[in-house]
Amino acid sequence: MASDGESTEPGTLRPGGRTARVRAAVLDAAGDLLAEAGFDRLDLAEVARRAEVGKTTVYRRWGTPSGLVADLLGDMAEQSAPRTETGSLDGDLLANADLVRRTLADPRQGPLFRAVIAAAGTDPRAAEALHRFYAVRVAEWAPCVRQAVARGELPPDTDAEEVVRSVSAPLYYRLLTTGTPPDAAAAERAARAAAAAARAGVFAAAGPEPAEG
After folding, report:
1. Dihedral sign for Cα atoms in the order 97, 81, 23, 109
2. Does the predicted TM-score (pTM) go above 0.70?
3. Residue 99 CB burial class (10 angstroms; 0-12, 13-18, ≥19)
4. Which InterPro entries did the record assign (predicted)?
5. For the chain, does the N or the C end have fewer beta carbons within 10 angstroms?
6. Whether 212 contacts 181, CB under 8 Å
């Protein structure tokens, strides 16, 4: 597929038409290659070959493997499943934990995230893209904690984002330290532990320093 003559920064491509089809094909190919071979072997020429896109198009639009990863993660954040609302804190956090579990256990998504996390340790642009991805996902789920505060389930000054992070953190830790995706029992433990800690005020804002006598 030949170049279409456009010059656009990653993540700012216009929706619809050939541009969108090219971007979708390239990001799909990049995700497959990341999952198969890791960040170190993410070759733009190979991505172009798999996507059936001209190499000049890929090099011009994304420039580097880091630029491609940044756009891929941005797209994944936009396409991620929406937040589940169950009407209870426990149910909402369990839904979040189960979504993380299923993502990490997925034969394509799991290796892809491991590759990007590894890349973030050495590549600043990959790290920035990963941070943006998780900022979007945490912001998507934080309202379930705020709703629990409004229902009186949690202290009023609970840090919603920290509660959400505390759900997924042990699941990622299990994956990274054992190489084994978390199972349903691990997801349930993570959700219950986060809910219990939130109710106990662990994630509430610190109060004022006591006055010195």
Report:
1. positive
2. yes
3. buried
4. Homeodomain-like_sf, HTH-type_TetR-like_transc_reg, HTH_TetR, Tet_transcr_reg_TetR-rel_C_sf, TetR_C
5. C
6. no
Residues in the chain: 213
Q: How far apart, in whole angstroms, are the C-alpha atoms of residue 64 and residue 76?
A: 19
Residue 67 parent element (H or E): helix 65-79
Asked if residue 158 lies in contact with residue 149, where contact means CB atoms within 8 angstroms, the answer is yes
**Which of 160, 175, 47, 31 has the alpha carbon at shortest distance from 93?**
160
Q: Judge whether 103 and 168 are in contact, CB under 8 Å.
A: no
Q: Write the pLDDT tens digit of every residue in 123-173.
A: 888 899 899 889 999 999 999 999 999 999 999 999 999 999 999 999 999
Give 39's DSSP letter.
G
| 3 state DSSP class of 127 | helix
Reported as a single tens digit per residue, the pLDDT across 21-63 is 999 999 999 999 988 988 889 999 999 999 999 999 999 999 9
**Domain ranges within the chain, ordered by starting residue:** 17-65, 80-199
Which tokens go with 86? Answer: 């169950």
Task: Please choose, from the candidates 6, 207, 195, 17, the residue with its C-alpha nearest in 3D space to the C-alpha of residue 91.
Answer: 195
Task: Pick 80-199's CATH classification: 1.10.357.10, 3.90.25.10, 3.40.50.20, 3.90.45.10.
Answer: 1.10.357.10
Token output for 106: 């997925």
As its CATH architecture, domain 17-65 has Orthogonal Bundle (1.10)
